[in-house]
Design brief:
Shape of chain B: globular
Number of helices of chain B: 18
Oligomer: heterodimer
Largest sheet of chain A: 2 strands, antiparallel
Helix content of chain B: 40-55%
Shape of chain A: flat
Structural class of chain A: mainly alpha
GO cellular component, one term (chain A): plasma membrane
CATH superfamily of chain A: MetI-like
CATH class of chain A: Mainly Alpha
Number of domains of chain B: 2
Helix content of chain A: over 70%
Family (chain A): Belongs to the binding-protein-dependent transport system permease family.
Structural class of chain B: alpha/beta
InterPro entries (chain B): Bact_solute-bd_prot1, SBP
Radius of gyration of chain A: 25 Å
Strand order of the largest sheet of chain A: 1-2
CATH superfamily of the largest domain in chain B: Periplasmic binding protein-like II
Largest sheet of chain B: 8 strands, mixed
Number of domains of chain A: 1
Number of strands of chain B: 14
Protein name (chain B): Sugar ABC transporter substrate-binding protein
Distance between the termini of chain A: 35 Å
CATH class of the largest domain in chain B: Alpha Beta
Distance between the termini of chain B: 57 Å
Strand content of chain A: under 5%
Strand content of chain B: 5-15%
Keywords (chain B): Signal
CATH topology of chain A: MetI-like fold
Radius of gyration of chain B: 23 Å
Chain lengths: 354, 427
């Protein structure tokens, strides 16, 4: 701080150093953020990569108490049926989340974008599950979905035969899908409503004058103009699915998620790393998750999200367009780097922090 | 601006100081007393009080020692310990350890003290049997506080209601009892499959009955389950499933948490029996409606399997032990010897409703079911540790999950062995 103050004193005499001073202050002020980022994101990722080359029990130091095995851990991970299953479940959840939540969220948003009594209340209600913590939701649903829980009691009163919603391996993953959809749809709806409100009302008026009905208006105006919002939401949804851990861990506990067919990459990592005391192997799993998430995130950005950026530059003069496109390319690179760093770091931290 | 700068500087400085202050650990404290930090897993009730009382009594005798008892939630214990042990300044001087491969890992990392020449005569003579669980390569690395033999715990009232007058001694009698309970509309067996190990205990017991002692011990040490008896144990599990005696949704039922857990089902007379270790009376007590001892709780030994090569009196058991960190002061060892004395072992038995490790304190066991356990324990031809403890968490978990899979209708006895081999390659 005293350095910054003395810089301020100097400035009075030398206006030219203004820019330098500004840069210097930016540097100083970003130090805490940098320390956090390097200490809790970059460093754990590097450490996980390092540990991943060892068979190590977590006691002592890997190079002393562990055994260097090169890429052996990675070979075992990729050939482990449990990991393949977990990966399959994760991808299933990612795809099904898009298929189930997307259309539903748009329909809900259409409804909640109309003017009617109690709209605020319903908007709030649909958003509530998103706000409540995963642990509470997991505990609540797992109690209600027990074979003799509330859900089956209601079904029984309706004269229907209930099933074992969470323990039956054929049903469990669909139960999980239901809970995920119920919890996260509020977030999608809020995003969609915000997107819809940005669409100018005049377009609908014009369409009505041309004789377009309600659904025709939605199909030809709302959906195309909502597309950037949908693409952004889908990106967040995919990332959320790749990281899914807490709900599964709460409902199915530490050991039976693979038996019930609901294991995810993250539960596999915790199960094989922390719970099995194989910190070396677990770190290697973290690295694999990191790479899978990175590839998916970058691919999505490259092929889907870049449309939004390209569309905005269409009408500009050619020279200006090219210059800006170059600049955008750079920004996008930086962005995706940040994105990539943000996406899987939870996963890798899980192991190194514990 | 200036005020803000000063404020920010103060905050920054405070953070730095605060962070460094976290690294407490052991050593000498401000009063010049030697500090001994103890990590145990009783966060509530009589168990916590036992440790506080013991610390106070020891401090009264040794004025220059400050015993710091820290209660760690059981489920958090392993993870926290693992991290803390990396650095002697943050590590406890004395901590809960359960023997087996896990203790071996800590020993190999040089983080635990060799107590062979430091334990008192009381420990050496009265805890001789239990000391096996904390002995690695002939050296003692911990002192057991309680022994926890397994067996079947049941509700006498529900057995009576179903017309079962004598506890089953053989598998056929057991199957018959299950059928009678079902006919009476009672859930026969509570099982907490969510935690995996309660399901796996069935498999361990079947193996103990089917395998000869040498075959059992061999597999425990070399992880090769080639003997025919392991397949037979798998078949026994299948027969057990065919009895269809478990509570509904056992796969997602936890073992000890709340009234809907398997122990809770037994405590509230929603199920008639449960296969569990010697901690059951204490666990069940916390889950009864009035939080008092379950009045009609009974115990019988695991039934005999016809044609099995194992000794029908052999039992499986666990032990809760305390180990000392390699860096700990002599006072920590003194405290461990202190609580292993007859007086404190008796108090331990009362506080935890369990069987104390010291033979001369076992007369303090008043619980009727536990007295039954003690009888079985004293007559046992051999006492083996739970297989998952023997194998450590890596292979142990794989074994447990293999059994759970089988019980859920996925896979068979061969898959259990395959899972074990796969796990061994990871660690």
């Amino acid at each position: 701080m005293s350095v910054a103050t003395s810089m301020r004193a100097k400035r009075a005499g030398r206006p030219r150093s203004d820019k330098f001073r500004q840069r210097f202050e930016m540097g100083v002020l970003s130090v805490p953020a940098l320390i956090m980022f390097i200490g809790f994101v970059i460093l754990p990722v590097i450490m996980a990569a390092y540990y991943g080359f060892y068979k190590w029990k977590g006691f002592g130091k890997p190079d002393v108490n562990g055994q260097f095995v090169g890429f052996d851990n990675y070979r075992i991970i990729l050939s482990d049926p449990s990991f393949q299953q977990a990966l399959g479940h994760t991808l299933f959840i990612a795809v099904m989340s898009l298929i189930i939540q997307g259309p539903l969220a748009i329909l809900f948003a259409l409804l909640l974008n109309q003017k009617f009594k109690g709209r605020g209340l319903i908007r709030t209600l649909i958003f509530v599950p998103y706000v409540v913590s995963e642990v509470i939701i997991g505990t609540g649903w797992s109690l209600m979905l027990q074979p003799n829980g509330a859900v089956n009691a209601v079904l029984k009163n309706l004269g229907l035969q209930g099933v074992d919603w969470i323990a039956n391996p054929k049903i469990a993953i669909w139960t999980l899908m239901f809970i995920i959809s119920w919890k996260y749809i509020g977030f999608a709806v809020i995003l969609m409503i915000a997107g819809m409100q940005a669409i100018p009302e005049e377009l609908y008026e014009a369409a009505r004058v041309d004789g377009a009905g309600f659904w025709r208006q939605q199909w030809s105006i709302t959906l195309p103009l909502l597309a950037p919002t949908i693409r952004m939401w889908a990106f967040m949804s995919i990332i959320g699915s790749l990281q899914l851990f807490d709900l599964v861990y709460i409902i199915w506990g530490q050991y039976v998620s693979s038996t019930a067919g609901t294991s995810t990459m993250a539960t596999y990592m915790v199960r094989e790393g922390r719970l099995a005391n194989n910190y070396g192997y677990g770190s290697a799993v973290a690295v694999v998750i990191f790479i899978i998430s990175l590839v998916i995130a970058l691919t999505y950005q490259r092929f889907v999200l870049n449309r939004d950026l390209a569309g905005a530059t269409e009408q500009r003069e050619r020279k200006q367009y090219e210059r800006r496109a170059k600049k955008r390319e750079r920004e996008r690179m930086a962005e995706s780097e940040i994105e990539a760093a943000i996406v899987p770091n939870n996963a890798s931290m899980e192991v190194s922090a514990s | 601006m200036r005020v803000k700068s000063v404020f920010a500087a103060v905050v920054a400085a405070a953070t730095v100081v605060g962070v460094s202050a976290c690294g407490g650990g052991s050593g000498t404290n401000a009063d010049g007393k030697t500090e001994v930090v103890v990590w145990m897993n009783s966060t509530t009730g009589d168990g916590k009080k036992f440790w506080d009382d013991a610390a106070a009594a020891f401090e009264a005798k040794h004025q220059n020692v400050d015993i710091k008892i820290e209660a760690i939630q059981n489920e958090d214990m392993d993870g926290k310990l693992q991290t803390a042990l990396q650095d002697p300044s943050s590590a406890p001087d004395m901590f809960l350890a359960r023997g087996g491969q896990k203790l071996r890992d800590v020993v190999e990392a040089g983080q635990v003290m060799d107590l062979t020449d430091k334990i008192s005569d009381q420990v050496k003579t009265q805890m001789k049997t239990a000391l096996d669980t904390t002995t690695v390569d002939g050296k003692v690395y911990g002192v057991p506080q309680s022994v926890l033999p397994g067996g079947i715990w049941y509700s006498k009232d529900l057995f009576k209601k179903a017309g079962i007058n004598e506890t089953p001694k053989t598998w056929d009698e057991f199957a018959d009892a299950v059928k009678k309970l079902k006919d009476a509309g009672i859930t026969p067996i509570a099982l907490g499959g969510k935690d995996a190990w309660p399901a796996a205990h069935w498999y361990y017991w079947f193996a103990l009955r089917e395998c000869s002692q040498s075959a059992f011990d061999e597999a425990s040490s070399d992880l090769k389950f080639t003997n025919e008896c392991w397949v037979k144990a798998g078949d026994d599990v299948k027969n057990l499933i065919d009895l269809d005696g478990f509570n509904d949704g056992f796969l997602t039922t936890s073992a000890q948490q709340g009234a809907s857990s398997s122990a809770g089902l037994l405590a509230n007379h929603m199920a008639a029996m449960e296969l569990m270790g010697g901690w059951e009376p204490g666990v069940v007590r916390d889950l009864t409606p009035d939080k008092k001892d379950m009045a009609d709780l009974g115990y019988f030994a695991f039934p005999e399997m016809e044609g099995g090569e194992g000794d029908p009196t052999a039992i499986l058991a666990g032990a809760d032990s305390m180990s000392i960190g390699a860096w700990a002061p002599q006072e920590a060892v003194d405290f461990l010897n202190f609580i292993s004395e007859k007086e404190w072992q008796e108090k331990y038995a009362e506080a935890f409703v369990t069987i104390p490790a010291a033979k001369n304190a076992q007369s303090a066991v008043k619980n009727e079911a536990l007295q039954q356990v003690l009888k079985v324990y004293d007559q046992a031809s051999s006492v083996s540790l739970w297989l998952d403890t023997v194998f450590g968490q890596n292979v142990g978990n794989a074994l447990n999950e293999g059994v759970v899979n089988m019980m859920a209708g996925k896979g068979n006895a061969d898959d259990i062995v395959k899972g074990i081999e796969a796990a061994a390659s990871k660690g």
